[in-house]
Amino acid sequence: MKCKTVDLMDNDYDVVIIGAGVIGTALLYVLSNFSNVEKVLMLEKYSLPAQLNSSSRNNSQTLHFGDIETNYGIEKVKETRAAAEMLCRYMDILPPKARGRIMAKCQKMVIGIGVEEAEAIRARYDEEFLRLFPDLQVLDRRAISKVEPNIMKGRHNGEEILGVYAQNGYMVDFGSLSTSFLDGARDGAHRPNAVFDNPVHSISECQGGYEVRASRGTYSARAVVVSAGAHTLSFAKSLGYGDTLSIIPVLGRFYHSKKVLDGKVYTMPRGKIPFLSVHGDPDINHANQTRYGPTITPYPFLERPNLSVAIDNLKSMGLDYDTVMSYSKIMRNGDIRHAILRNLSYSLPLFGKSEFVKNEVNKIVPRLTARDVHEHAGEGGIRPQIVDRKKGEIMLGEGKIKKGGLVFNITPSPGASSCMKIAFDDAVYITNHIGAKFYRERFMHTFHTG
Questions:
Q1: d(CA 198, CA 41)
Q2: Of 294, 450, 446, 260, which is closest to residue 381 (Cα–Cα)?
Q3: CA distance linking residue 109 with residue 260, whole number of Å
Q4: At 426, is the secondary structure helix, strand, or coil?
Q5: Cβ neighbours of residue 290 closer than 8 Å, sequence gap 6 or more
Q6: How far apart are the first and last CA of the chain?
Q7: Contacts of residue 70, Cβ cutoff 8 Å, sequence gap at least 6
Q8: Do 132 and 104 form a contact (C-beta atoms < 8 A)?
Q9: 296-310 burial string, b = 16+ CB within 10 Å, else e?
Q10: Could you give the CA distance from residue 420 to residue 406 in angstroms, rounded to a whole number?
């Protein structure tokens, strides 16, 4: 849709960023500190940053390096490690007190249970992989019991289990990280504007750029970056992009017990599909608890529990023949079908929690019972799973569209862990498009990426 040229002196910007989660605020920080872009605006519909997927209540708080993520190929592992190291460099420049509110060290492990999974562990962690991560240790039953005793207590003696252990892992409060990026942007050379409680209604093309209509104003921009989680695809489609894509919103819920694990414990993904596996994690904001999840329950809306987003949901899903056939093809995958039906049973009253503990939690901590585990009401976020409607397949990995000064970050993977790398890539693209300078060498020196 075209609109008239706008001439709003106070509302003209070089760049408008939609969404104040960790991806959007990272870009705001990078543009403010490593470019000469003078007029940047961030728009956020909530009153505070990081209220959805970046909130610590709605994600596993993991900084992914690729070492225990068994669904990544070797090239993806290298990219993931480099992106995570950039975020670590950012943490290094913060004062210790601020750093402590955002990130904490913890050990981590992936376990293979049964003969097939144990063999997959042995095959993956060969000499080449261990050269990438020389501190990784492959652990047998006895070694696992020393670093995570509750994994082995109550486990059947005949059950084969193999673990891969890293002493130096990290848990991150990505909501607090978003606030840190926002503060760092405001301290930069060109202090950006940020308007909260200001939902965006539409983006349209104008002469020389774009017009962004929001509840509290209309803004013009030469470039627009949308990092609005599951809503991003509906904005892209409104401008004619992403028509071959659709979204299946998946609700990821978490359960809690008292602290029984000293670090993060991941299980092998079923059928090489990463979101079909549950893991146990410490909680950076509740040191006396262990969390289990996320579940994978199909959900009819893009937010929980916001029914007002139903129209956006339908736009993102694009319910036409290709979409329906794609969903049908996906459900013919036995691993996905079985996992969805099983996860739906976890939501049932009376026995749902018991089933979750038996099927998921007990793989990690055998002795826990349903009485030991509880769910926090309202906790858990919506994970948008992108579907290629033409191929009828779920797209694993990053979903991004870049065209003509527009960037749509649909579902970056591995998500928040790559926020600095995503911000770098988007800043390079945006500054090139608008003819601004990006101080690449200073960025590389600051974050040790060269």
A1: 12
A2: 294
A3: 14
A4: helix
A5: 256, 257, 258, 259, 260, 261, 280, 281, 282, 283, 365
A6: 42
A7: 110, 120, 121, 124, 266, 268, 269
A8: no
A9: bbebebbbbeeeebe
A10: 19
* Segment 348-376, tens digit of pLDDT: 888 999 999 999 999 999 999 999 999 87
pTM over 0.70: yes
Distance between CA atoms of residues 55 and 173, nearest Å: 7
Give the three-state DSSP class for 346: helix
Between the alpha carbon of residue 190 and those of residues 193, 194, 221, 240, the distances in Å are 10, 13, 16, 33
Under 8 Å between Cβ of 101 and 176: yes
Task: Tokens for 362, please give them.
Answer: 């007990």
Using only the alpha carbons of the chain, give its radius of gyration.
22
Alpha-carbon gap, residue 151 to 256, rounded angstroms: 16
Burial tier of 440 (Cβ tally within 10 Å: 0-12, 13-18, 19+)? middle
CB 8 within 8 A of CB 218: yes
pLDDT tens readout for residues 290-338: 999 888 887 777 776 666 666 666 666 666 667 777 777 777 777 778 8
